[in-house]
Amino acid sequence: MSILVTGGTGFIGSHTVVEFLERGEDIVIVDNFCNSKPVVLDRIERITGRRPKFYEVDLCDAEGLERVFAENPELESCIHFAGLKAVGESTQKPLLYYRNNFLSTLTLCETMARHGVKRIVFSSSATVYGDPERVPIRETDRLGQTTNPYGETKQVIERILSDVVKADPAWSVSLLRYFNPVGAHKSGLIGEDPKGIPNNLFPYVTQVAEGRRPFLHVYGNDYNTHDGTGVRDYIHVVDLARAHLKALDRARTVTGVEVFNIGTGVGYSVLDVVKAFETATGKKIPYVIDPRRPGDIDACYADPAKALSILGWQAEYDLTDMCRDANRWQSMNPNGYDGADA
Ligand code: NAD
Ligand code: UD1
Predict the structure, then answer these.
(1) Residue 261 φ/ψ, nearest 5 degrees
(2) Which of 44, 155, 209, 229 has its CA 20 to 30 A from that of 143?
(3) 153-183: pLDDT as tens digits
(4) SS3 assignment, position 90
(5) For atom 39 of ligand 1, which residue has the closest CA?
(6) Nearest of 46, 44, 54, 52 to residue 11 by alpha carbon
(7) In whole angstroms, what is the distance from residue 69 CA to residue 108 CA?
């Protein structure tokens, strides 16, 4: 029995593969390296002592994917991370985002069905709630208006997978709505490696700490929050990775669709993050206050009670752990995986 992990060399996928390998499960990764590097496989092996089976295949390539399933008849489930995820880029290249994220998912599900594999855990996002009607957000709260093609693909893929279950109740679909994944594995060997100027807060902060950028731009201090800066639910990527083990365990015992918020339930502002990072690392993070970033909201954090009651999962790491581990990864790999050795 083995698990297909699409996008398994990416940020969240690589951390999840490590957790599964350490639990003794067999993994087959499919990735086309459009946003990751082969050296991640070496790093996974260094951490776990095991090298996952790997196929460099684009999920939109039906023949390539068919070969993966044909050569691995023991596949019993799939964790589907592969997708393009940059919100800003998705507004500039909507067709690329729609093509990649939809076609890959459709091709994957068709191939799975053909091979009788009907269990899937999907990487959704809190972005499906749009501007939430209230915080903390529950899974049953209304889905919001998406403001970009990336968010649209998450909402529509959730519906596609739900329709698959309606048509064939033998499927088991787990939709995990991630809040803000940050941090890195404690080894410092794997972490987040954004291309170019980071869009997200944590990678920007770690690059300021490393001296790669002079200061952080804080996007707005007039939000309706305790200090005026945006509040989010940051979750350590290893906690998030472990949620996939619990979600798959559950999907192995039930059929149908289930949705889970995967967050800590605690919201921190941008300035809280800056302070926590400085305290955890002893490094100064200079910042300037800039105007709001279009599309940003005041506050977004989860009610993670359902994940605890049904999956038996809850976050174990706090903001200090996230800052310490993100900083260790960045210090050990100042240029991310660029030019990195095994
Ligand atoms: P990532 O870019 O690091 O990993 C995605 C991986 O998928 C990459 O290795 C990329 O090469 C691969 N990929 C993309 N399209 C592919 C294709 N057509 N065929 C084969 N491989 C392909 O991103 P991540 O941060 O690890 O995110 C994983 C998933 O979680 C994504 O679906 C993302 O939308 C979702 N998500 C991420 C966040 C976040 O903040 N990181 C938040 C919510 C949801
Ligand atoms: C972003 C995406 C969201 C995605 C999520 C997952 C946008 C508009 N939204 O959400 O769709 O699901 O990532 O990771 O990109 N900030 C700064 N300075 C920076 C960067 C960010 O002040 O350089 C602030 C933002 O205004 C926000 C907070 O930090 O208040 C977190 O931002 P970010 O890390 O980009 O995450 P989200 O905006 O929550």
Answers:
(1) -75, 130
(2) 229
(3) 999 999 999 999 999 999 999 999 999 999 9
(4) helix
(5) 181
(6) 44
(7) 10
**What b-and-e string marks burial along 192-204, b requiring 16 or more CB atoms within 10 Å of the CB?**
bbbeeebebbbbb
Rounded Cα distance, 254 and 237, in Å? 26
Contact 176, 248 (CB under 8 A): no
Burial class (CB in 10 A: 0-12, 13-18, 19+), 305: middle
Largest CA distance in the chain: 56
Q: Which helix (H) or strand (E) holds 101?
A: none
Report the atom number in ligand 2 closest to the C-alpha of 292.
26
Catalytic, out of 55, 97, 98, 150: 150
| Sequence-distant (≥ 6) Cβ neighbours of residue 145 within 8 angstroms | 130, 131
- Is the CB of residue 120 less than 8 Å from the CB of residue 255? no
Give yes or no for residue 147 having a pLDDT over 90.
Answer: no
The total of other beta-carbon atoms located within 10 Å of residue 335's CB is 11
| Active-site annotation holds for 150 | yes
Residue 212 CB coordination number (10 Å): 14
Quick one: which ligand is closest to 30's CA? 1
Strand partners, 29: 5, 54
3-class secondary-structure state, position 122: strand
Strand partners, 119: 172
